[in-house]
Amino acid sequence: MPIPPFVEELRRMVGAHQLWLPAVTAVVVREQAGVQEVLLTLRADNGRWAPVTGILDPGEEPALAAAREAREEACVDIEVQRLASVSVSPPITHPNGDRGIYLDLTFACTWTGGEAAVGDDENTEVRWWPVDALPEMEPWLLRRIEAGLSDETAAAFLT
C-alpha cells in the first residue's frame, strides 16, 4: 500500500504541504554461499535502489513496522536484531507532489524465510546484493545500510 490511510486523511486536510512522519528502514541481511548479502528494492517512484522502508502506522511499534514492511514490500520474513541508527531524511517531493521529511529508525535485521519478490506496487524489483557490490543509491540510504551492517551495539545518530 503506497500511501497509508492516515496519511491520505492528513493530505485531504493539508494538501501537499510538507509533513513530518515517523518511518523505518529494515536493513535485511543473509549469508548465501559464504557471501553476506543485503536485500534491496527498486523503487517504482524514482527508479532507484533502496533498502526496505516505510511509514509507521499510528501507535505501531517500530520494530514490528520494519518486519511488516519487509513482508509487504519484499515477501520475506525477518528477525529484527537491533536499532542501528536514527536519522532524518532530506526533504522529499513524491511524484504526486506530496512533500515530506521522515524521522527514520533503521533496524539491523536477519532474513528468516520467504523468497524475495515484489510484494506491492511500491517497487518494481527486489533482489539480494553482495554487501561489497551494492548498486548506486542515495548517500543517506547507504549510511543507513552501513549502520545496519556495523557491529556496533549502540544506535548511530546519522547526519
Describe this structure in words.
By secondary structure, the chain is of the alpha+beta class. It has helices at residues 5-14, 62-74, 139-149; strands at residues 19-32, 35-43, 49-50, 52-55, 77-88, 92-93, 99-113, 123-130, 156-157. Strands 1, 2, 3, 4, 5, 6, 7, 8 and 9 form a 9-stranded mixed sheet that branches. It starts with a helix and ends with a strand.
Mean pLDDT: 94
Would you identify the regions where 5 or more consecutive residues have pLDDT less than 50? none
Count of helix runs: 3
* Alpha-carbon Rg, integer: 15 Å
How many beta-strand elements? 9
Task: Write the SSE topology.
Blueprint: H1 5-14, E1 19-32, E2 35-43, E3 49-50, E4 52-55, H2 62-74, E5 77-88, E6 92-93, E7 99-113, E8 123-130, H3 139-149, E9 156-157
Parallel strand pairs: 1-7, 5-9
Antiparallel strand pairs: 1-2, 1-4, 2-3, 2-8, 5-7, 6-7
